[in-house]
Specification:
12% helix, mainly beta, flat, 3 helices, Immunoglobulin-like
Length: 179
């Protein structure tokens, strides 16, 4: 039997563009079908909740605080590892069973003489009691990498605080010459 409903075909999009708002963890996709008019085609499910909160100015004060207290870090190269130092005051911790913890996600893209040679992914959990953590200023994370050729190395380092209320990521580039 033939279906009774009418089938509607949608024209193929000539171009699509996705905007990602990492601070709020939402995305929207626009498509250009004909002419010069862009159409919203694929919003993330959280978009309507975010728009509703913005309409009533209900943005959590914690989100504003996180934006002002961005993740900033120092980095260096020791010869066989990338050394990343992050002030504990810049990290957001959660509590579980009387201990505080956070998870730091690191991605390092390594270039040798301006050619990308590898990407290192590292995840580090920092934990301790409030007393233990209060006694520290920074957390130091070593990501192993041993250069095997002479030349100029560049490390493009991205560090993310996965526990932050908003997308908290910072990027830094360091250089090293192996002779």
């Amino acid at each position: 039997p033939m279906p009774t409903g009418r089938l509607v075909s949608r024209p193929q999009a000539r171009q699509s563009e996705t905007w990602v708002y990492r601070a709020h963890r939402v995305y929207v996709q626009f498509s250009l079908f004909s002419g010069d008019r862009w159409v919203l085609t694929a919003p993330s499910p959280e978009l309507s909740d975010l728009l509703e909160a913005a309409k009533f100015n209900l943005i959590d004060p914690g989100l504003r605080m996180d934006a002002e207290n961005r993740l900033i870090f120092d980095a260096g190269f020791t010869g066989d590892a990338v050394d990343i130092s992050i002030p504990l005051s810049r990290l957001r911790f959660k509590e579980s069973d009387g201990r505080l913890f956070t998870v730091i996600r690191i991605q390092i893209t390594v270039y040798h003489n301006l050619q990308k040679i590898t990407t290192l992914n590292h995840e580090e959990t920092v934990s301790g009691t409030e007393k233990e953590l209060r006694g520290k200023n920074n957390v130091s994370i070593l990501v192993p990498f041993r250069p095997d050729q002479k030349g100029k190395y560049m490390f493009d380092i991205n560090v993310e605080d996965t526990m932050a209320f908003v997308y908290s990521r910072y990027r830094r580039t360091i250089h090293h010459t192996r002779r």
